Amino acid sequence: MKLYSTQTAPNPERVLCFLREKNITDLEIVPIDLFKGEHRAKDYRVKSPFAQVPALELDDGRVLTESRAICRYLEGVYPEPNLFGTDPTETAFIEMWDRRVEMMWLMPLANWLRHGHPAFAALEKQIEELAPRGEKSFRRFAKFLDKELQTRDFMAGDRFSIADITAFATIGFARVARWKPEPEETPNLHAWRQRMFDRPCGAKS
Ligand SMILES: N[C@@H](CCC(=O)N[C@@H](CS)C(=O)NCC(=O)O)C(=O)O
What we know:
By secondary structure, this protein is α+β, with helices and mostly antiparallel strands. It folds into 2 domains: 2-77, 3-Layer(aba) Sandwich (Glutaredoxin), CATH 3.40.30; 88-197, Glutathione S-transferase Yfyf (Class Pi), Chain A, domain 2 (Up-down Bundle), CATH 1.20.1050. The protein contains 7 helices and 4 strands, in the order βαβαββααααα. It has helices at 10-22, 42-47, 67-77, 88-116, 130-148, 162-174, 187-197; strands at residues 2-5, 28-31, 55-57, 63-65. Strands 2-1-3-4 form a 4-stranded mixed β-sheet, covered by helices on one side. Helix 1 links the parallel strand 1 and strand 2 (28-31). Helix 4 (88-116) packs parallel to helix 6. Residues 9-11, 34, 39, 51-54, 65-68, 123 line the site of glutathione. Glutathione binds at residues 9-11, 34, 39, 51-54, 65-68, 123.
């Protein structure tokens, strides 16, 4: 299998973090440089029709895109440790939190950065008004998460899951906006992030 990926973007980072947590080392990682436009090359678009990373090329030549679908596939092939839930209730709560983090935290952050940061002008036809709206929603959801984390250690319950991976990739991307959870403002989110650094997910090379 080949994973087309980049080190500096949140969706590939979700898959890379998933690999680290599962200790999956037997797939080839092919770097794609977004800022050089490598994802828009004709031969890459054959694999990824929307010109995005990540993409996982299976041994039979078929290509999976969508970071969550890639993680779902890898969960099936490498079931331990379980990151998607073991019974219907746990699976559903993990799904709920993963979706919330992606749609209500990562997406607003993407709007904030892609429409507000000069570096992203190479990738996005920027619409100025979207940046402050994205920033406001992102900051609001950070406060919401902080409250939630008063009563549990992980995003979706009392153990690590794909929802923590999506949240950690989001926080990694937020560095571009010079944002991180501060102990005075969002202490529970800050403590959660510190815990992530002690895990394979947070132990980046
Ligand atoms: N829903 C897709 C989104 C993938 C995506 O947006 N990838 C970004 C990097 S995080 C990308 O390839 N962007 C290229 C571009 O905007 O031109 C997934 O979850 O994989």
